[in-house]
Amino acid sequence: MRGRSSFSVLMVLVAFIVTLFLSETVSSAPTKKPTPKPKPARGLITLKQLTKAFAGNCPPKTVGDAITCKDALPYINAAIKKYKLKTKGQQAAYIANMAYEGGYLKYNHNLVNPTQGTRSIMPAVSLRIFVDANKPVQKLFPGYPNINNDSIVGVLIKRKLDFEPGAWWTVAGPGCAKVAAGLRASEDSFVAWEKGCINGGLETIPDRARIYKAVYAAIAK
User: CA–CA separation, 57 vs 51, rounded Å?
Assistant: First the structure.
């Protein structure tokens, strides 16, 4: 009987030690931090924020394709509001892409291919997608849908809608909605958006990400 009692006590001790070890292991395991939620935009962009975001690259005057940050700001904010860019990440992505593609508001056309343009320097096929998705814009083209895609950029610029396609595409272009919803301060969120929405080329991502980081920091406060 004594042998059985000793064995029972031993088993209880072993069970206690194992339980204690397992509880320590679980408690010491690193906990995965939740992914931060995208920051909602507190309002529209200010001239101070845009100037800081462009880091000295605002054109000095509005002439030719170039437009000053001050003159561009009302169009930028109107596009942000119209196409519902609701988070700081979405606004930063729109502005950063425009800065990268258009040389910080210096260009409204691709210097090699004039059918590619607007402030985000979009190809004719992408501009056609924008037109097809927005009925009010379609009214600008007599005979729509039978229009020449190469003519779209000129019409949009003439009607002062050159800031709109990039804003719409940021959150509503093909493949963009889901990745745009996840845009945050992190570079990973921007890269996911760039690859899934813009696809401007892997070799351009470091420069695009650097601009995004600067823009986000400037407008996040």
Answer: 8
Rounded to the nearest 5°, which phi and psi values hold at 63? -160, 140
Q: Which tokens is 145 given? A: 């849908």
Distance CA(175)–CA(18), nearest Å, equals: 51
67's CB contacts (< 8 A; 6+ apart) are: 59, 105
Which CATH fold would you assign to the domain 47-219? Answer: Lysozyme (1.10.530)
Domains in the chain: boundaries:
1-31, 47-219
Query: Which neighbouring-strand residues pair with 66?
Result: 63
pLDDT tens-digit profile, the chain (221 residues): 444 455 454 454 445 554 544 455 444 445 556 667 787 877 899 999 999 999 999 999 999 999 999 999 999 999 999 999 999 999 999 999 999 999 999 999 999 999 999 999 999 999 999 999 999 999 999 999 999 999 999 999 999 999 999 999 999 999 999 999 999 999 999 999 999 999 999 999 999 999 999 999 999 87
